[in-house]
Amino acid sequence: MNSDRRRATIKDIAEALNLSVSTVSRALQNNPRISKETTEEVKKMALSLDYSIHGPAAALRTGQGNNIGVIVPRINRQFFSSLIGGIEQVLRINALNTFIYQTQESFENEQQGVQAMLNAGVDGLMISLSVETQAFDHIERFMRSGRPVVFFDRCIEDSTLSRVMIDDFQAAYQITEHILANGCRKLVYLGGSEHLMMYRNRRKGFEQALIDHHLDSPDAHIYENSLTREKGYDITKRLIETGQTPDAIISASDFSALGSILCLKEAGIKIPDQVCVTGFANELFSEVMDPSLTSIEQHAREIGMKAAEIMVRNIKGFSETETVLIPTELIIRQSSLRHR
Protein backbone atom coordinates (compact mmCIF):
# COMPACT_ATOMS: atom_id res chain seq x y z
CA MET A 1 0.00 0.00 0.00
CA ASN A 2 1.16 3.54 -0.55
CA SER A 3 0.14 7.08 0.27
CA ASP A 4 -0.88 7.80 -3.33
CA ARG A 5 -4.19 6.13 -2.58
CA ARG A 6 -4.96 8.28 0.47
CA ARG A 7 -8.49 9.62 0.33
CA ALA A 8 -8.62 13.33 -0.51
CA THR A 9 -10.01 15.54 2.26
CA ILE A 10 -11.73 18.90 2.45
CA LYS A 11 -8.43 20.29 3.68
CA ASP A 12 -6.73 19.14 0.45
CA ILE A 13 -9.31 20.99 -1.64
CA ALA A 14 -8.98 24.10 0.51
CA GLU A 15 -5.21 24.17 0.16
CA ALA A 16 -5.36 23.59 -3.59
CA LEU A 17 -7.71 26.57 -4.05
CA ASN A 18 -6.29 28.76 -1.27
CA LEU A 19 -9.67 28.78 0.46
CA SER A 20 -10.68 28.14 4.05
CA VAL A 21 -11.90 24.71 5.08
CA SER A 22 -15.24 26.15 6.14
CA THR A 23 -15.73 27.77 2.71
CA VAL A 24 -15.03 24.49 0.94
CA SER A 25 -17.36 22.62 3.28
CA ARG A 26 -20.19 25.09 2.64
CA ALA A 27 -19.61 24.98 -1.11
CA LEU A 28 -19.88 21.19 -1.13
CA GLN A 29 -23.21 21.54 0.67
CA ASN A 30 -24.45 24.13 -1.86
CA ASN A 31 -24.68 26.75 0.85
CA PRO A 32 -26.21 29.94 -0.63
CA ARG A 33 -23.66 32.05 1.26
CA ILE A 34 -21.02 30.81 -1.20
CA SER A 35 -21.02 32.25 -4.72
CA LYS A 36 -21.95 30.08 -7.66
CA GLU A 37 -18.49 30.54 -9.17
CA THR A 38 -16.71 29.43 -5.99
CA THR A 39 -19.04 26.45 -5.55
CA GLU A 40 -18.38 25.28 -9.10
CA GLU A 41 -14.64 25.77 -8.64
CA VAL A 42 -14.68 23.74 -5.42
CA LYS A 43 -16.67 20.90 -6.93
CA LYS A 44 -14.42 20.80 -9.97
CA MET A 45 -11.35 20.52 -7.75
CA ALA A 46 -13.10 17.88 -5.61
CA LEU A 47 -13.68 15.75 -8.67
CA SER A 48 -10.10 16.17 -9.87
CA LEU A 49 -8.87 14.97 -6.46
CA ASP A 50 -11.34 12.04 -6.41
CA TYR A 51 -13.03 13.51 -3.34
CA SER A 52 -16.40 11.88 -2.74
CA ILE A 53 -18.79 14.82 -2.44
CA HIS A 54 -21.63 12.56 -1.32
CA GLY A 55 -19.39 10.28 0.71
CA PRO A 56 -18.87 9.72 4.42
CA ALA A 57 -18.42 13.35 5.40
CA ALA A 58 -21.74 14.36 3.86
CA ALA A 59 -23.39 11.33 5.40
CA LEU A 60 -22.17 12.26 8.87
CA ARG A 61 -23.53 15.81 8.49
CA THR A 62 -26.91 14.83 7.06
CA GLY A 63 -27.50 11.63 9.00
CA GLN A 64 -28.06 9.70 5.76
CA GLY A 65 -25.17 7.34 6.43
CA ASN A 66 -23.60 6.65 9.80
CA ASN A 67 -22.17 3.15 9.89
CA ILE A 68 -18.60 2.07 10.68
CA GLY A 69 -17.38 -1.48 10.07
CA VAL A 70 -15.13 -2.99 12.74
CA ILE A 71 -13.27 -6.22 12.01
CA VAL A 72 -11.52 -8.09 14.84
CA PRO A 73 -9.94 -11.55 15.17
CA ARG A 74 -12.18 -12.57 18.10
CA ILE A 75 -14.80 -10.91 20.24
CA ASN A 76 -14.67 -13.47 23.07
CA ARG A 77 -11.28 -12.25 24.30
CA GLN A 78 -11.17 -9.64 27.03
CA PHE A 79 -8.68 -7.55 25.09
CA PHE A 80 -10.85 -7.22 21.99
CA SER A 81 -14.12 -6.86 23.91
CA SER A 82 -12.60 -3.96 25.88
CA LEU A 83 -11.23 -2.47 22.68
CA ILE A 84 -14.62 -2.68 20.97
CA GLY A 85 -16.17 -1.01 24.01
CA GLY A 86 -13.82 1.94 23.52
CA ILE A 87 -14.64 2.13 19.81
CA GLU A 88 -18.39 2.05 20.42
CA GLN A 89 -18.19 4.73 23.09
CA VAL A 90 -16.55 7.25 20.74
CA LEU A 91 -18.63 6.36 17.69
CA ARG A 92 -21.89 6.55 19.63
CA ILE A 93 -21.06 10.05 20.87
CA ASN A 94 -20.59 11.02 17.22
CA ALA A 95 -23.92 9.48 16.15
CA LEU A 96 -22.21 6.58 14.37
CA ASN A 97 -23.24 2.93 14.47
CA THR A 98 -20.79 0.05 14.89
CA PHE A 99 -21.00 -3.04 12.66
CA ILE A 100 -18.79 -5.80 14.10
CA TYR A 101 -17.37 -8.78 12.19
CA GLN A 102 -15.00 -11.36 13.68
CA THR A 103 -12.58 -13.35 11.53
CA GLN A 104 -11.83 -16.17 13.99
CA GLU A 105 -8.17 -15.65 12.97
CA SER A 106 -8.95 -16.71 9.38
CA PHE A 107 -7.59 -14.74 6.39
CA GLU A 108 -10.42 -16.05 4.23
CA ASN A 109 -12.98 -14.80 6.75
CA GLU A 110 -11.20 -11.46 6.86
CA GLN A 111 -11.42 -11.10 3.09
CA GLN A 112 -15.12 -11.93 3.20
CA GLY A 113 -15.67 -9.49 6.05
CA VAL A 114 -14.01 -6.58 4.26
CA GLN A 115 -16.02 -7.30 1.12
CA ALA A 116 -19.22 -7.53 3.16
CA MET A 117 -18.49 -4.13 4.70
CA LEU A 118 -17.80 -2.71 1.25
CA ASN A 119 -21.05 -4.13 -0.11
CA ALA A 120 -22.98 -2.86 2.90
CA GLY A 121 -21.80 0.67 2.20
CA VAL A 122 -20.22 1.36 5.58
CA ASP A 123 -18.66 4.81 5.80
CA GLY A 124 -15.32 3.62 7.13
CA LEU A 125 -13.46 0.48 8.14
CA MET A 126 -11.56 -0.22 11.35
CA ILE A 127 -9.57 -3.46 11.37
CA SER A 128 -7.21 -5.60 13.42
CA LEU A 129 -5.59 -8.21 11.18
CA SER A 130 -6.08 -11.95 11.55
CA VAL A 131 -3.08 -14.05 12.53
CA GLU A 132 -3.07 -15.54 8.99
CA THR A 133 -3.07 -12.25 7.07
CA GLN A 134 -0.04 -11.68 4.84
CA ALA A 135 -1.65 -10.00 1.80
CA PHE A 136 -3.71 -6.82 1.67
CA ASP A 137 -5.48 -6.69 -1.70
CA HIS A 138 -8.87 -6.83 0.02
CA ILE A 139 -8.06 -3.78 2.12
CA GLU A 140 -6.65 -1.89 -0.86
CA ARG A 141 -9.92 -2.58 -2.66
CA PHE A 142 -11.84 -0.97 0.18
CA MET A 143 -9.50 2.03 0.20
CA ARG A 144 -10.03 2.57 -3.52
CA SER A 145 -13.70 3.20 -2.73
CA GLY A 146 -12.61 6.47 -1.16
CA ARG A 147 -13.59 5.50 2.36
CA PRO A 148 -11.16 5.71 5.30
CA VAL A 149 -9.42 2.75 6.93
CA VAL A 150 -7.92 2.76 10.43
CA PHE A 151 -5.83 -0.13 11.73
CA PHE A 152 -5.59 -0.99 15.42
CA ASP A 153 -3.52 -3.43 17.50
CA ARG A 154 -2.43 -5.78 14.70
CA CYS A 155 -1.43 -3.23 12.12
CA ILE A 156 0.10 -3.19 8.68
CA GLU A 157 3.74 -2.11 8.49
CA ASP A 158 3.04 1.07 6.53
CA SER A 159 3.44 4.45 8.19
CA THR A 160 1.38 6.14 5.46
CA LEU A 161 -1.78 4.57 6.93
CA SER A 162 -3.58 5.46 10.15
CA ARG A 163 -2.73 3.07 12.97
CA VAL A 164 -3.21 2.80 16.73
CA MET A 165 -1.04 0.29 18.56
CA ILE A 166 1.32 -0.20 21.46
CA ASP A 167 5.11 -0.10 21.39
CA ASP A 168 5.53 -3.88 21.31
CA PHE A 169 9.31 -3.62 21.20
CA GLN A 170 9.49 -1.54 24.37
CA ALA A 171 6.93 -3.66 26.21
CA ALA A 172 8.83 -6.90 25.49
CA TYR A 173 12.12 -5.21 26.36
CA GLN A 174 10.73 -4.06 29.71
CA ILE A 175 9.36 -7.42 30.74
CA THR A 176 12.60 -9.16 29.73
CA GLU A 177 14.63 -6.69 31.80
CA HIS A 178 12.38 -7.49 34.75
CA ILE A 179 13.14 -11.20 34.36
CA LEU A 180 16.88 -10.58 34.01
CA ALA A 181 16.79 -8.45 37.17
CA ASN A 182 15.53 -11.56 38.97
CA GLY A 183 18.77 -13.32 38.10
CA CYS A 184 17.30 -15.50 35.36
CA ARG A 185 19.66 -16.31 32.50
CA LYS A 186 18.31 -19.47 30.87
CA LEU A 187 15.32 -18.04 29.04
CA VAL A 188 12.66 -19.44 26.72
CA TYR A 189 10.56 -17.13 24.54
CA LEU A 190 7.11 -18.12 23.26
CA GLY A 191 6.26 -15.82 20.36
CA GLY A 192 3.65 -15.30 17.69
CA SER A 193 3.55 -15.34 13.89
CA GLU A 194 6.59 -13.44 12.65
CA HIS A 195 4.84 -12.12 9.53
CA LEU A 196 2.83 -9.84 11.83
CA MET A 197 4.68 -6.67 12.80
CA MET A 198 3.60 -6.77 16.45
CA TYR A 199 5.09 -10.21 17.08
CA ARG A 200 8.31 -9.38 15.22
CA ASN A 201 8.69 -6.32 17.39
CA ARG A 202 8.06 -8.26 20.59
CA ARG A 203 10.77 -10.73 19.68
CA LYS A 204 13.15 -7.90 18.80
CA GLY A 205 12.49 -6.28 22.17
CA PHE A 206 13.25 -9.56 23.94
CA GLU A 207 16.47 -10.05 21.97
CA GLN A 208 17.63 -6.45 22.46
CA ALA A 209 17.27 -6.75 26.22
CA LEU A 210 19.55 -9.80 26.13
CA ILE A 211 22.09 -7.97 23.97
CA ASP A 212 22.08 -4.97 26.30
CA HIS A 213 22.84 -7.29 29.20
CA HIS A 214 25.64 -8.97 27.23
CA LEU A 215 23.77 -12.24 26.80
CA ASP A 216 23.50 -14.29 23.62
CA SER A 217 20.07 -14.66 22.04
CA PRO A 218 18.92 -18.25 22.70
CA ASP A 219 17.80 -19.04 19.15
CA ALA A 220 17.23 -22.69 20.02
CA HIS A 221 14.70 -21.62 22.64
CA ILE A 222 12.62 -19.12 20.67
CA TYR A 223 9.33 -20.64 19.57
CA GLU A 224 7.14 -18.96 16.94
CA ASN A 225 3.38 -19.49 16.58
CA SER A 226 3.12 -20.39 20.26
CA LEU A 227 0.29 -18.25 21.58
CA THR A 228 -2.23 -20.84 22.79
CA ARG A 229 -2.55 -22.60 26.12
CA GLU A 230 -1.93 -25.92 24.38
CA LYS A 231 1.28 -24.67 22.76
CA GLY A 232 2.56 -23.31 26.04
CA TYR A 233 1.86 -26.59 27.81
CA ASP A 234 3.37 -28.81 25.10
CA ILE A 235 6.57 -26.78 24.68
CA THR A 236 7.12 -26.60 28.43
CA LYS A 237 6.54 -30.33 28.82
CA ARG A 238 9.02 -31.10 26.04
CA LEU A 239 11.65 -28.88 27.66
CA ILE A 240 11.21 -30.59 31.03
CA GLU A 241 11.33 -34.10 29.54
CA THR A 242 14.52 -33.35 27.60
CA GLY A 243 16.32 -31.87 30.59
CA GLN A 244 16.17 -28.31 29.23
CA THR A 245 13.99 -26.71 31.90
CA PRO A 246 14.62 -22.96 31.75
CA ASP A 247 14.64 -20.59 34.71
CA ALA A 248 12.21 -18.23 32.94
CA ILE A 249 9.53 -18.46 30.26
CA ILE A 250 8.60 -15.17 28.58
CA SER A 251 5.45 -15.42 26.49
CA ALA A 252 3.90 -13.05 23.97
CA SER A 253 0.48 -14.25 25.19
CA ASP A 254 -1.20 -14.80 28.54
CA PHE A 255 -2.73 -17.98 27.14
CA SER A 256 0.56 -19.72 26.36
CA ALA A 257 1.90 -18.51 29.71
CA LEU A 258 -1.10 -20.18 31.37
CA GLY A 259 -0.26 -23.44 29.59
CA SER A 260 3.34 -23.24 30.78
CA ILE A 261 2.27 -22.66 34.38
CA LEU A 262 -0.14 -25.62 34.32
CA CYS A 263 2.65 -27.88 33.03
CA LEU A 264 5.22 -26.64 35.54
CA LYS A 265 2.80 -27.18 38.44
CA GLU A 266 2.03 -30.72 37.26
CA ALA A 267 5.77 -31.43 37.21
CA GLY A 268 6.18 -30.12 40.76
CA ILE A 269 8.35 -27.20 39.65
CA LYS A 270 8.02 -24.16 41.88
CA ILE A 271 6.96 -20.83 40.36
CA PRO A 272 8.72 -18.41 40.55
CA ASP A 273 11.48 -19.89 42.74
CA GLN A 274 12.61 -22.36 40.06
CA VAL A 275 10.99 -20.91 36.93
CA CYS A 276 9.58 -17.42 36.39
CA VAL A 277 6.73 -17.03 33.90
CA THR A 278 5.37 -13.90 32.23
CA GLY A 279 2.56 -13.25 29.76
CA PHE A 280 1.26 -10.41 27.63
CA ALA A 281 -2.15 -8.64 27.48
CA ASN A 282 -3.22 -8.85 31.14
CA GLU A 283 -6.25 -11.04 30.48
CA LEU A 284 -8.82 -11.26 33.28
CA PHE A 285 -7.62 -14.69 34.42
CA SER A 286 -4.02 -13.48 34.88
CA GLU A 287 -4.89 -11.82 38.20
CA VAL A 288 -6.87 -14.70 39.71
CA MET A 289 -4.83 -17.74 38.65
CA ASP A 290 -2.39 -19.41 41.04
CA PRO A 291 0.22 -18.07 40.98
CA SER A 292 -1.04 -14.77 39.58
CA LEU A 293 0.58 -13.94 36.26
CA THR A 294 2.98 -11.10 35.52
CA SER A 295 1.83 -9.47 32.29
CA ILE A 296 1.72 -6.36 30.11
CA GLU A 297 -1.35 -4.13 30.34
CA GLN A 298 -2.07 -2.79 26.85
CA HIS A 299 -4.96 -0.48 27.75
CA ALA A 300 -7.25 -1.95 25.09
CA ARG A 301 -10.13 0.45 25.69
CA GLU A 302 -7.84 3.42 25.07
CA ILE A 303 -6.60 1.83 21.84
CA GLY A 304 -10.20 1.51 20.68
CA MET A 305 -11.09 5.06 21.65
CA LYS A 306 -8.07 6.58 19.90
CA ALA A 307 -8.70 4.54 16.75
CA ALA A 308 -12.34 5.66 16.72
CA GLU A 309 -11.35 9.29 17.21
CA ILE A 310 -9.10 9.05 14.15
CA MET A 311 -11.96 7.48 12.17
CA VAL A 312 -14.33 10.30 13.11
CA ARG A 313 -11.77 12.90 12.05
CA ASN A 314 -11.21 11.05 8.77
CA ILE A 315 -14.91 10.94 8.02
CA LYS A 316 -15.24 14.65 8.67
CA GLY A 317 -12.37 15.20 6.24
CA PHE A 318 -10.06 17.07 8.61
CA SER A 319 -7.44 14.43 9.41
CA GLU A 320 -4.08 13.49 8.00
CA THR A 321 -2.60 10.00 8.43
CA GLU A 322 -1.85 9.29 12.08
CA THR A 323 0.19 6.68 13.95
CA VAL A 324 -0.56 6.63 17.68
CA LEU A 325 1.38 4.57 20.24
CA ILE A 326 -0.52 3.79 23.44
CA PRO A 327 1.72 3.42 26.52
CA THR A 328 1.80 0.00 28.19
CA GLU A 329 2.25 -0.98 31.83
CA LEU A 330 4.22 -3.85 33.35
CA ILE A 331 2.04 -5.59 35.95
CA ILE A 332 4.30 -7.60 38.25
CA ARG A 333 2.62 -10.49 40.05
CA GLN A 334 3.55 -13.73 41.82
CA SER A 335 4.71 -15.69 38.75
CA SER A 336 7.90 -13.61 38.49
CA LEU A 337 8.23 -12.00 41.92
CA ARG A 338 11.26 -13.61 43.49
CA HIS A 339 12.30 -12.52 46.97
CA ARG A 340 16.00 -11.83 46.80
Describe the structure.
This protein is an alpha/beta fold. It folds into three domains: 3-53, lambda repressor-like DNA-binding domains (434 Repressor (Amino-terminal Domain)); 66-165 and 300-327, Response regulator (Rossmann fold), CATH 3.40.50; 168-298 and 330-336, Rossmann fold. The protein is 44% helix and 14% strand. The strands form three sheets. A six-stranded parallel beta sheet has the order 2-1-3-4-5-11, with helices on both faces. Strand 8, helix 11 and strand 9 form a beta-alpha-beta unit. Helix 1 packs across helix 2, helix 1 crosses helix 3 and helix 5 runs parallel beside helix 13 (300-316). The longest helix has 17 residues, at 300-316. The radius of gyration is 24 Å and the shape is elongated. The N and C termini lie far apart (51 Å). Residues 60-64 have low confidence and may be disordered.
